[in-house]
Design a protein that fits this description.
The protein is α/β, with parallel strands linked by helices. It has helices at 10-18, 42-58, 74-77, 90-106, 122-138, 157-163, 178-187, 232-253, and strands at residues 24-28, 61-62, 111-116, 145-150. The chain has one domain: 3-Layer(aba) Sandwich (Rossmann fold), CATH 3.40.50.10310. Helix 2 crosses helix 8 (232-253) and helix 4 packs across helix 5 (122-138). It binds zinc ion.
């Protein structure tokens, strides 16, 4: 049977929940520029594609991906002023995720993974989980467990060496750079503009943030560091390393029902 929540009928889902609630993945992304070479939906596509693979290993279900996220930040995503970024205010985002968690849990889907692909969402996912647990407790629904992670958290030292044989500059500057480009080259090569892969020095930022952000203060392609080292083989190594590692970690995080 399909691992996609939206492919099931309500009776099929009801039967799955009655057997003991499956782990439900909610991929969370963004619509955000990803350099001259990757599509705007990169941060939504990657967690969606990875969540399906991880869920398949542990008998989980995958909810439809949230394709919008919190605002792109200059130091981690280039900034929300860049073309194609359409984002949500934090309050909107938190309440949307909270509402979904609550409805999933009310219907017995009490084991939820917030499976993130966009760094800027992270603390707001934490807040959404906290508000959802508080609301559900008030309704007498207490058997809820939520795990939050970015899909990249299980990139270990060997994988890092595969990705960056000459050394990693910093994960903060990996936006639209070697890791995302490699994984897209492996999973969605049809969407990578290989002739436009940027090769330039890493973006330089002061150690503080300035509001309002001055877009003229930085000069970059939308990628925060070079993506020239990206290859489909590196992308395959990341996917083949991450999927079983994430499956193991997530299964361990949920005691059997
Ligand atoms: Zn990204």
């Amino acid at each position: 049977m399909s691992g996609r929540l939206s492919d099931l009928t309500w009776r099929e889902l009801d039967a799955r929940v009655a057997e003991g609630p499956p782990i439900l993945f909610l991929p969370t992304g963004a619509l955000e520029q990803h350099g001259p070479h990757l599509p705007l939906g990169t941060d939504a596509m990657l967690p969606a594609l990875l969540a399906e693979r991880v869920a398949a290993e542990i008998g989980g279900l995958v909810a439809p991906t949230l394709p919008y996220g919190y605002k792109s930040q200059p130091k981690s995503g280039g900034g929300n002023h860049m073309q194609g970024c359409a984002s949500l205010d934090a309050n909107t985002y938190i309440l949307m995720v909270r509402d979904l968690i609550c409805d999933f849990a009310r219907h017995g889907l009490t084991r939820i993974v917030l499976f993130d692909g966009h760094m800027e969402n992270q603390m707001f996912l934490t807040e959404a989980a906290d508000l959802a647990l508080r609301a559900l407790k008030g309704e007498g629904i207490e058997e809820v467990r939520i795990v939050k992670l970015g899909y990249w958290v299980m990139i270990d030292e060997p994988l890092e060496e595969t990705l960056f044989p000459e050394g990693l500059i910093s994960w903060e500057l990996e936006h639209a750079a070697v890791m995302e480009t490699s994984v897209m080259l492996h999973l969605r090569p049809d969407l990578v503009r290989t002739d436009l892969i940027p090769d330039h020095p890493p973006a330089a930022f002061p150690p503080y943030d300035v509001y309002p952000f001055d877009p003229g203060s930085v000069c970059h392609s939308g990628a925060l560091s070079s993506a020239a080292g990206a290859t489909a083989e590196k992308g395959r190594a990341v996917v083949e390393g991450l999927v079983p590692a994430l499956a193991r970690q997530i299964a361990e995080a949920f005691p059997a029902p």
